[in-house]
Every structure is written in structure tokens, then in C-alpha cells.
Write a structure and sequence with these properties.
Layout: E1 2-3, E2 6-7, E3 21-25, H1 32-40, E4 51-52, E5 55-56, E6 67-70, H2 82-92, H3 97-110, H4 126-138, E7 144-148, H5 156-173, E8 176-181, H6 184-190, E9 193-198, E10 201-206, H7 208-213, H8 218-223, E11 228-238, E12 241-246, E13 249-254, E14 262-267, E15 281-293, E16 297-304, E17 310-316, E18 326-331, E19 337-339
Parallel strand pairs: 3-8, 3-9, 6-7, 7-8
Antiparallel strand pairs: 1-2, 4-5, 9-10, 11-12, 11-14, 12-13, 14-19, 15-16, 15-18, 16-17
Protein name: ABC transporter ATP-binding protein
GO cellular component, one term: ATP-binding cassette (ABC) transporter complex
Keywords: ATP-binding, Nucleotide-binding, Transport
Length: about 350
């Protein structure tokens, strides 16, 4: 997909399983909203085809596609009642009035707002408006529901609540959801599949657990939450076992790479420990530079002795730590992820 001389999307080959909750995740300018607009018919792709339920819908206008879209600003009509807002799509499709009423009531009940049918939009909270927008989109029974950062305008507590509700509603109705966000925690909370996008490409795709714990690139490792990247090179490779030499020492782990290759090891903060239990390897002695309490844990930045390198780690909730304190750090090689790109 091109806009003038700029390539917005390139090499996209994405299959979405019916009935799944797919999240398009990435930074601003990564191409996720462009891809969503192509799926919804609001943009015509420069090349390639779009298929929904086995039908080629590439040149089909939005109103005729088996999709509906929930936008960040909800796009609700302030002069209409809540019921009229929800029934709008049915009216445009010339659905019989008795069916409009039945399906509208069902949709409002589904989002827990049946009691608001006679009210106007300005009488509702932000979270309620989001649910009305969702009801209006689902009442027409689309094959695919597209959500363009619909929770972005909500405060943190309400956003977390709506994430849970979105997930429950999606499982209840069984409609395919494609949700755009730049919030990694939101993506992991709601998605069956996460598609990580960067600079118009798909960087990674998989379950939240796989993408977080086994990222396939440096970009994904850094974008999906806090991470420590340890640069190194392969000094030995035999079958599925390799040895990586880094500034923190040498580590033997499972993986495939050519001897002499420049690689990186991804190590999440929660996988650094101040004790040598189990099969953990010593990373080094470090001095705590910063420490903050995050409720469930203490998050620290520590500088390794004899090096300019700093690492981020998480310590248990009850373990008090202060800047200036020294720690000996260990990590299980099984938690280290080999990255070749």
C-alpha cells in the first residue's frame, strides 16, 4: 500500500481464523490502522487482494462488506436515542421494524445497557458510549468486527474493565474481532493472536504467550514490554546447542545459528534473579541505580560492575531495595531467547 511515494504496507500475508480475537499491535506509523482500513474497505490496496468468508471483497465498498467498524471516537449520533443509534445499521439495511426492535433490545442487553434505550448519548459515560458503539456494530451480525483503538479515550481503570468485557462479548457472540492498539498490555489481555507491525511489515505473529516469551526479532523483544538485550556472538554450534559469548560471559543454550554469527539474547526483567537457585548462570555483580515500587513488584535499574551496561530487573513485592545496594544477578539459560535479527 502506497501513499504517494511512501510505502505504508508491504509484503502483508495474513490469514485470520474465523471466530478469533486478533490484535494488530505496533507503534504509530507502523501500518496497523492502514491495514484495518483496507479490511474495512475505507482504503483500496495498491496491490493484493482481500478475502472474507472466501469472497474477494477487495473492491467492495464498506457498506456492502460483511464488516463493521468501531472507531476511537465512537461516531454516535447525539440527536438520536440510544436505541435509534443501535438500530441505525439495521434501518439502513431495510430490516423489518419488528426485527429492528428485537435485535436492538438483544444487542443492548448483551452489553448490559438495556435500561438506557430511551436516553441520549450525552447522558452516558465514556465506558457506556463505548459499549453502545459496540452494540451498534454487532447488531448487524458482521462476519468481522474491526476496532480502531476503541479504548484509547478511556482512563486506565475503565480501560482494563472494558478489555475484560470486550473479551467476554467476543467469546459470547463468536464474531471475528480485529483490534488495533499500541498498548502491549491491552494486546496481551484480549488477544488470541497478536500481530506485531513495524514500518509497514509484520514483525511477528502468534499467541500472546509465544510473542512475549519467545519473540522472533529484536524489535518484538523490545516492543513487547520491558526487556534486556544482550549482544554477543556464536562461538560454538552443534545441532540444537549453541554457545554465545557476551560481555556478561558465555552461555550455552538451545538454538540454531552459525558459528561466528552476531546475535542477541533477550532476557525479561522478571527472569533476572538475586539468587543462584536451580540451573541459573551468573550474570555478574551489579549496583542498583534506580528502584521503584509498582505494587506487585519492585522494578530496578542496576549497573554491572566493570561495565557501562545496565539491566532492568523485577524483585519481589516484599524485598526492599535501595539505590546503591549491590546484587549478584543470575538467570536461567532456558529463559534466554536467541535473536538472529
Amino acid at each position: 500500500m502506497r501513499f504517494g511515494g511512501k510505502v505504508a504496507l508491504q509484503g502483508i500475508n495474513l490469514t485470520i481464523e474465523a471466530g478469533s480475537f486478533v490484535v494488530l499491535l505496533g507503534p504509530s506509523g507502523g501500518g496497523k490502522t492502514t491495514l484495518l482500513n483496507i479490511l474495512g474497505g475505507f482504503l483500496d490496496p495498491t496491490e493484493g487482494r482481500v478475502f472474507i468468508d472466501g469472497r474477494d471483497v477487495t473492491r467492495m465498498p464498506p457498506a456492502k462488506r460483511p464488516t463493521t467498524t468501531v472507531f476511537q471516537d465512537y461516531a454516535l449520533f447525539p440527536h438520536m436515542s440510544i436505541a435509534a443509534n443501535v438500530a441505525f445499521g439495521l434501518k439502513m439495511r431495510r430490516v423489518a421494524k419488528d426485527q429492528q426492535r428485537i435485535r436492538t433490545e438483544r444487542a443492548l442487553d448483551m452489553v448490559g445497557l438495556g435500561h438506557t434505550a430511551a436516553r441520549r448519548i450525552h447522558e452516558l459515560s465514556g465506558g457506556q458510549r463505548q459499549r453502545i458503539a459496540l452494540a451498534r456494530a454487532l447488531v448487524v451480525e458482521p462476519s468481522v468486527l474491526l476496532l480502531d483503538e476503541p479504548l484509547g479515550a478511556l482512563d486506565l481503570k475503565l480501560r482494563r474493565q472494558m478489555q475484560e468485557e470486550l473479551k467476554l462479548i467476543q467469546k459470547r457472540v463468536g464474531t471475528t474481532f480485529v483490534h488495533v492498539t499500541h498498548d502491549q498490555e491491552e494486546a496481551m489481555a484480549i488477544g488470541d493472536v497478536i500481530v506485531v507491525m513495524n514500518d509497514g511489515f509484520i514483525e511477528d505473529i502468534g499467541s500472546p504467550e509465544r510473542v512475549y516469551l519467545q519473540p522472533s526479532s529484536r524489535f518484538t523483544a523490545n516492543f513487547m514490554g520491558d526487556n534486556n538485550l544482550i549482544e554477543g556472538s556464536i562461538t560454538d554450534a552443534a545441532g540444537e546447542r549453541i554457545h554465545v559469548e557476551t560481555t556478561f560471559g558465555g552461555f550455552s543454550l538451545t538454538g540454531k545459528a552459525d558459528k561466528g554469527a552476531k546475535v542477541a539474547l533477550s532476557l525479561r526483567p522478571e527472569h533476572l534473579h538475586p539468587d543462584a537457585a536451580g540451573e541459573r548462570a551468573k550474570i555478574g555483580t551489579a549496583k542498583v541505580v534506580e528502584s521503584g515500587f509498582f505494587g506487585t513488584h519492585h522494578q530496578c535499574m542496576a549497573k554491572l560492575d566493570g561495565s557501562d551496561n545496565t539491566v532492568k530487573l523485577r524483585l519481589p513485592q516484599k524485598q526492599m531495595i535501595r539505590p546503591g545496594e549491590a546484587l549478584t544477578l543470575y538467570a536461567d539459560p532456558a529463559d534466554m531467547v536467541l535473536l538472529t535479527r
